[in-house]
Structure formats: C-alpha cells, structure tokens
Amino acid sequence: MIILSPSVLGADFTKLGEQIAAVDRAGAEYIHLDVMDGSFVPSISFGMPVIASIRGCTGRIFDVHMMVEEPGRFVDDLKKAGADIVCVHQEACRHLDRTVNQIREAGMSPAVALNPATPVETLSCILPYVDMVLVMSVNPGFGGQKFIPYTLEKIRALRRMIDEQGLKCRIEIDGGVKLSNVEEILQAGADTIVVGSGVFSGDAEKNAADFMEIFRKYNA
Ligand code: DX5
Ligand code: ZN
Which residues of this protein are catalytic (predicted)? Predict the structure, then answer.
C-alpha cells in the first residue's frame, strides 16, 4: 500500500493543529515530523514538546525523521512524546546497529535515512532489521528544495535489494516531491511518500487528497 506522510515542516505553525487535522481528514496515514539539531543539518526545527503537544491532534502514525547527531540519545524522549516510527540517519550514528536495536526495544519502529550521496549498499547488513529506509531526494535541512533525479536510481536499487532478500521493508522518499513527479517515484519502487511544501502550500486537505487520488491507482 502506498502511504502519504505529509511533512509538518511545510505547515503554517500558527495553525498546526488545524493543518494536521486537514491532512488526517484527507486520509494521510503518517505524519512526518522533521527534528533538526543545527549540527547534523544547518537548521533547527522543533523537538519533543511540539511532538508531544500535537500527539493530541491525531491518531495517525508519527513518522519522526531525526536529522540529529547521535539520535540514540533521544530514544526514550521520543517514546514519551508519542513517536511511532523513528528514522535515524546512517551518517549520524556511529553505532547504527545499537541505535536501531534501542528503537525496537523501546517499542517503536526503526527506520534508516540516507543522504542523497550515500550509497544504498551501505545498508546491506542492517536492512533485515529496519522497517523502512528513507531515501533523501534533497540535502536535508530545508523544505521547498528541488528533487535530485539520481535518487530515483537509488530507489530502484533498494527495491531490488529488498525483493532479493524477501524483506517487507518500506521505501520512503523525502524532498521535492510534487504531483508532477510522484508517479515516476512510485514507478521506481517507493511506497511511502513524504510531501512538505507540495501539501501545505495552499489548501492542505485538497493537496493531500490529490496525492491520495493518484495513490489509489497504484493501490488497486
Ligand atoms: C527536509 C525534510 C523534509 C521536508 C520536505 O530536510 O526532511 O521532510 O520537509 O519538504 P518538501 O516536500 O517541501 O521538499
Ligand atoms: Zn523529512
């Protein structure tokens, strides 16, 4: 099943609750939450207090993208704040296996993210132990950037690795996804689609519904 994960980073923060309710009504199964530390990435976004406070706005799955150095330090805090999926960057974890295990042991679902220039082969050992791989299709840190086309080949390669090993791991794409390029991303093999500005610029409910309409074709 293709899943929409609207990225709250693109939302109007003065009406966060309303905006989350809008994408929830449109049928988005995940809510993508970008935590940034100003060190792994050049900007700072939001953290646990915001995640905990919006937990009351929706029952949807919280897909937390940790753009943070050594995110293993925050696993317990993420659990308390209401995270369901915790996605850590391969480039930010000195002991990726330990961090993935920590997330699983805390009762959450582990995922690993790769920057655009990090090859998918680096995941060959950890792939059986994660529930999702996030392929960054922009350099992480900001919404509204342009999709980097060579990441489509990474999705295809990852799809082959997952299928060859008979795994169930999801493939998430994040950055520069619009209605105009989402179909080629789906055809490459992604099944979990993060959209920030493409949903939250303008009417979030309608934009999310437009993505869901395309997904229905692929889910049929
Ligand atoms: C960027 C974040 C994304 C971002 C996507 O570092 O990881 O989730 O919000 O925004 P768009 O869809 O506008 O590229
Ligand atoms: Zn993200």
Answer: 34 (proton acceptor), 174 (proton donor)
